[in-house]
Amino acid sequence: MDITIVGGGVCGLALAHELAPDHRVTVLESSPGPRGGGYMIDFFGPGFVAAERMGVLEELRLRGHVFDGVRYGLPDGSDSGTIDAGPLVEAAGGRYFSILRPEVELGLLAQLPDSVDLRYGTRVVEVEDVGPERAAVVTAGGEVLTSDLVVACDGVRSPVREQVAPGHGPILPMGYRAASYLYEDPQLAHELGERMLMSDSIQRVGWLYAADVDQVGVMFAERVDRQGTERPVPDPDRLCRRFSGLHPQIDRALTHVPDSFYDDLVAQSHAPRWSRGRVVLAGDAAHAPSLLAGQGTSLAIAGAEALARSLRAAGPHIEVGLAEYERRWRPTAEKVRRSGRLSASAFIPATTFQLRVQQVGRRAMGLPGVSRLLSRQFVAA
Ligand SMILES: Cc1cc2nc3c(=O)[nH]c(=O)nc-3n(C[C@H](O)[C@H](O)[C@H](O)COP(=O)(O)OP(=O)(O)OC[C@H]3O[C@@H](n4cnc5c(N)ncnc54)[C@H](O)[C@@H]3O)c2cc1C
């Protein structure tokens, strides 16, 4: 059958990879090429297992890295503690690595079958269930594509969600805003070495890591009002003002903020149904857990694989396949979304008291057995 995928991010590419052997697949992606810029994600959980089954894991692993751990830094440049990654990797049975988000896209692209018609620079402006058994998309250029199934993999702010599940279109902000960028700084990359740096601070937090021998990755997050849903406008001056003084190395990285960088509210998405007629949601469009769960990319890959598997098993009975996808996959997606909500209040300490509690917790992580236990709980979440 003909399948149109809206969005060539992690979910869209993973889905195209899985559907290509059985179907004619077109992927419409609004950006002019693979999206660059990005942050380091932890890759483990259901997506890791799915990537293994899809035969793309080695490609991703080659592009990934295992850090020694995290060190916590204070404004005077001293460290207040460290956490080792070893127990986490061990608890995940070695099925864990860090990888830059754009590298996940590039890894999936490298493995994409030639039969997939991937069109960059093509923005979809309308998706419609035109029945019987057909759906259509309209591009900004005015082209209309009809197919047997349209899959919206267009991210957490997907407008298609409102169509499929009326009243559930808006994102669900978690009370944080995050920004990230990469820049060239071999000297700082060398100084950072194998440990990520995280600021030990309240209300706002900064992370630095060596993305490779030449590049430094920077990420910031701050507490914000939960009410707004508008995407913030990236502003380098604001970023510098807001996050200076956390740590001398972070201040150095703040002198290299590019004009354009990732900046958005930390948010989840929820839809009580994932399909309507021949239009179905996948990845963040269906079930974004937010960066607080640390598994958005993992879920996007595993959800894509689950959808492809259900469609394969249902053969020509597409509605049966869509219902089965939701029945099998929703419990896992909901569990991860819940864990994201549970960690929301503790993500960045709001007060000095909360900060002290976290510092004591970090010291306890160093005790025999405790770090192993907590790592197991984190991986199981
Ligand atoms: C700061 C931050 C840190 C994160 N950390 C982690 C982490 O540690 N671990 C983890 O697993 N996950 C993490 N995530 C989440 C992860 O990046 C996403 O959950 C994951 O990439 C979801 O993939 P997706 O393909 O569903 O959506 P997206 O990656 O958002 O892709 C959607 C694609 O659709 C395209 N698109 C949108 N609208 C249209 C349109 N109208 N027409 C055509 N194309 C369109 C977009 O250009 C984009 O390429 C983090 C996210 C953020 C913001």
Automatic annotation (TrEMBL):
Record keywords: Monooxygenase, Oxidoreductase
Listed name of the protein: FAD-dependent monooxygenase
One Gene Ontology term of the molecular function aspect: monooxygenase activity
Domain (FAD-binding): residue spans on this chain: 2-336
Keyword Nucleotidyltransferase among record annotations: no
SUPFAM superfamilies (UniProt xref): FAD/NAD(P)-binding domain
